Amino acid sequence: MARPRLLPDNFTLCLIAAMVLASLLPVQGQAAVVFGWITNLAIGLLFFMHGAKLSRDAIWAGAMHWRLHLLVFSCTFILFPLLGLALKPLLAPLMGHELYLGMLFLCALPATVQSAIAFTSLARGNVAAAVCSAATSSLLGIFITPFLVVLLLGAEGGSGDTLGAIGQITVQLLLPFVAGQVARRWIGSWVEQNKSWLKNVDQGSILLVVFGAFSASVVEGLWQTIPLTQLGGLLIACCILLALVLVLVEQLARRLGFNTEDRITILFAGSKKSLATGVPMAQVLFAGGSMGAMILPLMVFHQIQLMVCAVLAERYARRPEVPEGSSTPAS
């Protein structure tokens, strides 16, 4: 039987299941401490495998297209935060203060890697530039995101010790990534052959963090402090933010004279936020009880961006083929 089109993908269903399980049977006490150590090890393995999977050739491919990369990074680390702040009078009443802080955290995160590249490829955009932009955004986010979190959230929501947060992220995320890059010399071919299986490492690590985060938040009374009306407001807020970003990114790329292939890359690389990077970063930056509210906007936004970008990618993919050497159509 064919899968219903409106049914979320399996990973999203697993995320929902992890939230429900944590709400009903939260891990706490000494078990939570042990679970935290297991989660940290899983996150280290996740970034080690990211380092081992990403070839240096892929990182450098398209790197000379500096105008495109500069626009993508500006959208990711400047446009998103500015929109998050400017929309506070609208978003904060919709979702409440705690979830609004989570929305600001979302705005500070780097772009996705896998889905940005996948959608760019499906839409027949500049894939080499997408690989370079997404990979570099993920690396820059390790250093930029903690500073943005402090600037956006201040002492109220984020860690005041910015250098300490960067140090923690460096140890937990960057060092495993670098170790993976070094180990790629010996395990690179094995990683290439097992990419589909290693996807389980990514998803399993995220599920562990989500379960642990929501367990701590439930123990602290998450669902007593966030009513259903605020969850509905969160859904509306994520749709508003994504719609504004998509329109602004596309218009900026068009006005700056990029061709269709580059505009596709800019749209998908500049409008997305990374769940795979954001959840581990939240583990480092926020205390256990507050983390559930911090990552909930990211989880909702992640699913919406996937569904919307899938529709956009299919629409771009249906445009007529252009013979090599011909000028690219405007849209």
From TrEMBL:
Iron among keywords: no
Annotated protein name in UniProt: Bile acid:sodium symporter
Keywords in alphabetical order: Membrane, Transmembrane, Transmembrane helix
Pfam families on file: SBF_like
Gene3D superfamilies: 1.20.1530.20
Transmembrane stretches, start-end: 7-25, 31-48, 68-87, 99-120, 127-153, 165-183, 204-223, 229-249, 281-301
